[in-house]
Structure of Dehydrogenase:
Amino acid sequence: MPANNTHQSAVTSPVTVIGLGPMGRALAAAFLAAGVPTTVWNRTPGRDGELVERGALRARTAEEAVAASPLTVVCVVNYDASDAVLRDDAVTRALKGRTVVNLSADTPDRARSAAEWAAAHGVRYLDGAIMTPTTTIGTPHAVFIHSGETALYEEHRPTLEALGGTHTHLGEDIGRAAAYDVALLDIFWTAMTGYMHALAVAKAEGVQARELAPFAAGIGAILPAVFEAAAAEVDNGTYSGDDNPITSAASTMAHVIHTSESHGIDAGVMRAAEGLARRVIGEGHGTDGLTRVTELLGRR
């Protein structure tokens, strides 16, 4: 059962933050604000000035940084970047017996590979993901997800909770946090791409983006209930089309494609969606709902 924690504890155990992009700086600032002794390091120098002014310790090297604390939180662009730092021989030696929490975004397979590497080198390892923007870090609105050994998570939970918000431990499969992250990013980026496309189509028809936005928000407001119902159908394998059969969905998708292309606007994303719907219909499932696409995509 995932552990969900929202309280913040007084923490004195030091932490190191590696990676001082916007999110890494926000993490370090939140630790400092909570009174956590914080060491910082970034491959590109010059990003730690404000943090040092606020009390952070500047490490000269990555080896020095990880040696400064029992817990190192890594937040870089991806696992290629984190591997380049952590798998340096000197850094790996300094990490032995210490814990890494990797909050960098990447795939479940990469998380599992990193955990195998860590275990082979005596490094304790947790994976995680940050599900909210930099502005939420250190506030009750931040959302973090974690995966890996339960006892190790519980050991470092008080320090992690200094980052504010909600922390959920998803289980001991080290790739689980990345799996959630990838799936949720799939929703976000697909939705945002659809919104950008919708704004382009609306503009071509003389509708300003700010005019459409309130109606777009109305679409967003109905999605939570749609998500819950669709999830139940997928888990149950029912794929009901009683309210909106996929034939109807395909028809309205075609309207979007026609209008887009009449203005010279690329409709590739919607064409891909319509193609999936037409495949479902072609297989004799025209009375099912759009959720039947999940079954189509999940075949191996």
